[in-house]
Amino acid sequence: MMEPGLYHMLFISATLFFIGVYGFFTRRNLVTMLMSVELVLNSVNLNFIAFNKYLWYDKMDGLFFTIFVIAIAAAEAAVAIAIIINLYRSHNSIDVENAEELKY
Amino acid sequence: MPGLPLFWRGNEGEAIMPNATYIALIPLLPLAGFLMLGIFGRKYFKNTSGVIGTTLLLISTVLALYTAYGYFFEYGKIDGVYQKLIPLKYTWLQFSEGVSIDMGIIIDPISVMMLVVVTFISLMVHIYSLGYMKGDERFPTYYAFLGLFTFSMLGLVISSNIFQIYIFWELVGVSSFLLIGYYYDKPSAVAACKKAFIVTRFADVGFLIGILVLSFYAGTLDFNTLIERLTSAESTEFKTAVAASFMGMSALTWGLVLVFIGGAGKSAMFPLHIWLPDAMEGPTPVSALIHAATMVVAGVFLVARLFPVFAISSPDALSLVGYVGAFSALIAAVIACTQTDIKRVLAYSTMSQIGYMMFALGVSKYGGEDGLGYTASMFHLFTHAMFKALLFLGAGAVIHYIHSNEMKDMGGLRKYLPITHITFLIACLAIAGVPPFAGFFSKEEILLAAYQSNQSIYWVALITSGLTAFYMFRLYFSIFWNREAHVHGEHKGEGGFAMMMPLVLLAIGAAAAGFIPFGHFVSTDGARLETEFHLMFSIAPVALGLAGIFIAMWLYKKASDKPDKIASSLNGLYKAAYHKFYMDEIYMFITQKIIFNLIGRPAAWFDKNVVDGLVNATGNGTKDISETIKGLQSGKVQQYAIYFLVGVIGLALLFIYWWN
C-alpha cells in the first residue's frame, strides 16, 4: 500500500472545495448552502495541514491557521444560523429564492 | 482721554506720530453700533436704538474734532508743512516683496477734514432721524444701516492703501444700496436701489482695473509710496508707466482715467449720474447724509487723494476730470430748473455742485499758488456738506409736514414752519453764493482758480452759478411763498427739538463756515496757501446770482402762469430738460436694445444650449448607464457568489500569468 503524499492531500482538498462550491451554487436551502460553505472552509484547512506537514514540518504555522479557521467557522455558523432563523420568522421559509428583496 | 497721549513724540529728528488708538476708535464705534443694533436691535433696543447710535456717534465726533485739533494745531506741521502721517499700519495680505494690502490709517489735511465733516453731518442726521423716523417699524435696522455707512465712510477717508480704500468704497456702496432700498415694500425704491448699485458697480469695475494698472506700474498699493514713485520723473516706475502705451495714451493716464471713472460713478458725474436722482427714494435724512454730503463726494476725495499723480504726471487725465466736472455741473443745473419733485431738484443740485468740485480739481496744478483749485475744491466740499445737508434736512421737515415731495402740493409754508423757513433760506443763500454765506467763499475760489487756468470752464461755471441761484430760489419760493397754504388735518408742528436742532446747527455752519481760512490748512503740498479776496472779481458771479434770485422771485413768489408761459415758449429745451435730456431713455435703449439683443441673447442661448447641454448630457448619460447595468444587483445571493468566484478565478489567472 502506498504512503499518501502531498498530491493526494491536495487532490482531496480540491475535490472537497469544488463539491462545496457546487453545493453553494445549486442548493436553494440556506442550511445546505451553509454546509457547503463549511466544506469549502475545511478543504482549505486540509491544504494548510498538508503543506505544513510535507513542506515545513519543523513549523507550526499551518496548524495554528487551521485552528483559527475552525474557530471562526464556528462563529460564522452561529451568525449564519441566527440570520436563517430570523429569515424564517419573517418569510416562513429558508429558501434563498424567497429572499430577494435587497436589490436595485 | 486721560492716560492716552494725543501723539507720540519720536526720537530727535523723527516724525511725530499721532496716537492711533483713538483715531481707530472713530470708525470702530459706528461699527460697534451697527453690529449691536443689527444683531440685537429688534429684540432688545426696539426704542432705544436711536439713542445708542447717536451716543456712539457723538463720541466719534468728539474724537474726530480732537484729532483735527491735534493735527492742525499741535503736531501736524513740520517747518510749516502739513505732513502725511501713518499712525497705524497693519500688513494684512502680503503678495510679494513690497506689494501688500494693508489696513492702515493716513492722517493728512484732507482725511482729517473729511473725518470732521463725516462725523458731524452723520451726527446731525442721527439726531434728526430721532424725530423723522420716530415710530418706524424698522427703527433699529435704520440706525444699524446708518452706523454701517458711517463706519465705511470714515474707513474710506482714512485709508492708507489704495486697495483698502476700494474695500471701503464698496462698503459705502452697499450701505447706500441698503438705505435707498429701506422702504423695500415700495417697488420704486427697490428699482432705485438696484439702479444705484448696478451703475456704481459698473463704474467700480473701472476703478478696480485702474487700481491694478497703477499698482502694477508703481509696484505698490500704498498711497504714499505710489504717489512718490509715480510723481518723480527719475524713478524707474514712472518711466515704465509713461513709456507703456495703449491706444495712444500712456498706461499711467489710462490708470488714472479708470480710477476717475470709479470716482465719477460714485460722485454722479455725467454720464454715470442717472442713479442719483432715483436714489432719492430713500428716507430723506439718508439722502442728506449719503447722497448730498458724504458718499457722493467720495469720488472728489479719491481724485484729491491721488491729486499729485494727476497733476504732476498726467495733465491729460486731470483735464478730463475738469471737463467732465464742468459739463456735469452745467447739465445738472439746467435739469434742476425744470424738476418738480423737491428732492430731485436737490439731487441735481448736488450733482451740479460736485461738478464744481471736480472741475476745481481739474483746473488746479500742484504746488504753491497754482494749487488754488485743489484748496477751493476741498473748501467747497466742506461748505457744500453743510448747506446741502441742511437743504435736505429742511426738505425732510417739509415732506414730514406735508406728506408729499411735489412742489405743487406746497406753498405758503413760511408761517407754519418758521425755523425750517429761516434755515432753508440761509442754505439757499449759501448755495447761491451770496456773501457772506459759506458758499460764496468757496465758489469764489473755484471761479478764481478756473479763471486763472481755463477760461472755457470759467464761463461754464459762471453760467452754472447763475442757474444755481435761480433753481434754488425757485424751490424756496415754491415751498414757502407762492400761493396760500392749504394744509388740512392736524397740525403737528415742525417736528420737535430733535429735528430742529440739526437744522439750526447746520445753518450756523452754512452761514459761518466760509470764514475759515481754508488755505491755511488744506493745500496741494501741505504748505500754507494765502487765498486773496478780489472784490472786482466777485462782482460778476454775485450779480449773476442775485439776478437768478430776482428772476425766481418774479416768477414764483406769487402764483401765476408766468412760469408755464416761459416753459411753453422754450418748448423743446424745456421738455428735454424736464425729461433729464432723455438720459434714462438712452440708457434703456443701450441696455435693452443693444446689449440685451446683441450680447444678452446670444449669451443666454449659449448658456441654455451649450452649458446646460453639457450638464444635462452628463446627468442623462449616467442615468442611462445605470438603467442598463442595474440588473447586476439582482438580490440573488448565489448570483453574487458567481460574480465573486469568476472574479477570484480571473485574478488567480492574472497572477499566474504575471508570475511566469
Please describe what this structure looks like.
The complex is a heterodimer of chains A (104) and B (660). Chain A is mainly α and 104 residues long. Chain A has one domain (6-98): Helix Hairpins. Helix content of chain A is 74%, strand content 0%. Chain A is built from 3 helices and no strands. Chain A has helices at 6-26, 30-54, 61-91. The mean pLDDT of chain A is 91. By secondary structure, chain B is mainly α. Chain B has 25 helices and 8 strands. Chain B has helices spanning 20-44, 49-75, 109-132, 139-157, 162-180, 187-218, 223-231, 236-243, 251-266, 275-278, 284-293, 298-305, 307-313, 315-336, 342-363, 372-402, 418-432, 438-453, 455-480, 496-512, 535-556, 562-569, 571-578, 583-629, 637-659; strands spanning 7-8, 17-18, 77-78, 81-82, 85-96, 99-107, 245-246, 249-250. Chain B has a two-stranded antiparallel ribbon. In chain B, a hairpin with a 2-residue loop joins strand 7 and strand 8. In chain B, helix 2 (49-75) packs parallel to helix 4, helix 3 packs parallel to helix 16 (372-402) and helix 14 (315-336) packs antiparallel against helix 15. The radius of gyration of chain B is 30 Å and the shape is globular. The model of chain B has no long low-confidence stretch (mean pLDDT 85). The A-B interface holds A 21, 24-25, 33, 96-97, 99-104 and B 630-631, 633-638, 641-642, 645.
